[in-house]
Amino acid sequence: MSPAVSLSSAVREAGAWPFVEARKILARIERTGQKEVLFETGYGPSGLPHIGTFGEVARTSMVRHAFAVLTGEAIKTRLIAFSDDMDGLRKVPENIPNRELVAAHLGKPLTQIPDPFGTHASFGAHNNARLRSFLDQFGFDYEFASATDYYKSGRFDAALLRMLARYDDVMAIMLPSFRQERAATYSPFLPIHPLTGIVMQVPLEDIDAGAGTIAWRDPKTQERFITPVTGGHCKLQWKPDWAMRWYALGVDYEMAGKDLIDSVKLSGEIVRALGGTPPEGFIYELFLDEKGQKISKSIGNGLTIEEWLTYASPESLSLFMYQKPTAAKRLFFDVIPRTVDDYLTFLDAYPRQEPKEQLGNPVWHIHAGEPPPPEVLRHAGRGTEISFGMLLNLAAVANSEDPQVLWGFLRRYAPDVSPQSHPRLDRLVSYAVRYFRDFVRPNKTYRLPDETERAALVQLSDMLADMPESASPEDIQSALYDIARPIPRYQDFGAKGATPERPGVSNEWFNMLYQVLLGESRGPRFGSFIALYGIAETRQLIADALAGDLVRRHAEEHAPQAGRGRA
RNA sequence: GAGCGCGUAGCUCAGGUGGUAGAGCAUCUGACUUUUAAUCAGGAGGUCAUGGGUUCGAAUCCCAUCGCGCUCACCA
Question: Would the pTM of this model clear 0.80, i.e. be above it?
């Protein structure tokens, strides 16, 4: 059996969810005989890209890639990113300049509202540009589509006329989902007011399927209008809009969050009423914040994509999106280190896996079948991958947000490594020091030394003053022991090799140094720490500790807003 | 009212298509005492929420129950 054949059988049986989805699409096209498959992701008018946007496109791309491999690339695939930029603006966003400018155009399609940022032809065009640059920064492969363009160009006309012809069927599907008062005024067609340009939510007085028009009345002036449903003179309400788009474009696959289950169902029924077939679907669970609440842009809870990318790579975020899309997951700062290390573990395992296992490895899906080789450090003849957790630990004990200090530790372990030879590790170091700065250091607890400890620290500082800046870690370590040995509190007569004349030194000595100087309950080999951190710097650290500055500064910097460390 | 998810070690969670319960942290023991936590070795800890069903065999599939949580029912 050739590798290609065994791989294809593995692909047909692969249990990873993108393959399960891909097989759904394969079964669909085997029924229809079509030679092209269209994936869609959609974006609402409130418009700005967020972490869920990333998740939806990343997941859809994973399915798309699995499908391409499953079919041996014999079937062309496209991913369309559809922007609802013709929706009427319902309220002025809080986070924009020139709010009064926008307020004057409330109710109009986004593409008919001036750009409050002054950089694009319209507010809608501005948001579209933001969306596209967002998607582009991750290298997603997609085609952008504007609802305004599609409506105005006539690409939707045939489907719009068909919906008008099936008006009664559409209403029969929609009306039961409303309460009585809403049902009385509902219309799937929203005419654009020919005088004001506003997207009108008004009851229809008449429809003329033959002429392709609807009749309605301006509620303020009572003037009656007859408007064609075609040519961008009219748009559709949300659920019929979605259905019409599926029907008009022939969308084969679109995923949606759990909050849209009812919409998917109703839109699917409408597609059938039009005589089409709804796309294959996938419902993913929502993300929750640390308290289990739905993440909402308006509330501002949870984690933004900017925050994730401050502390970890896009690949690690892809992993988060890959894992268990149907289970609700907390999306908060503390999941980042774990996700990063999971990603590194999967990357590390990939080269050792059989092809069949590789198809189930998330990095295969994250990197479109071609994950990069892991970066390992060579030490004592074997390779080790440095984890994010390890780097956080190093940053914590070194109490440093300087990447160079961490690299110092790394080079001591594997002398030949550098940011140049290990660029991804270098980025990992940068992420780690930021995470340390914002989440680890605020949780340090420094304490003041008592009299005995003060005396010992003064002696330590004096001792260091006599040592050359180039002193070896071993020499410093020996000197540390000699400082503590005569101090009764730190003597340990039970230590191996200890004699009554020459007692051992207990760990209490080092624990005190960690607590007073580093704000940690444990720490690095202290002689090594001083050699790396610098003798003069360590003496300054001791001076600060004796003056109470470490305790005071830490309290000033971190006490008021503990927890959420956005710098 | 409708729908969805979750329940596995003290904690946080992994555990495609059924085949003797796993990791990290925490904890305990031991090794090493001019020594360490970027070390090594080992241990303990779970009726996999509960009750049924299918099966030679169920954490896994099916049904029911309990508990927790979320979403939708105005708009998108």
Answer: yes
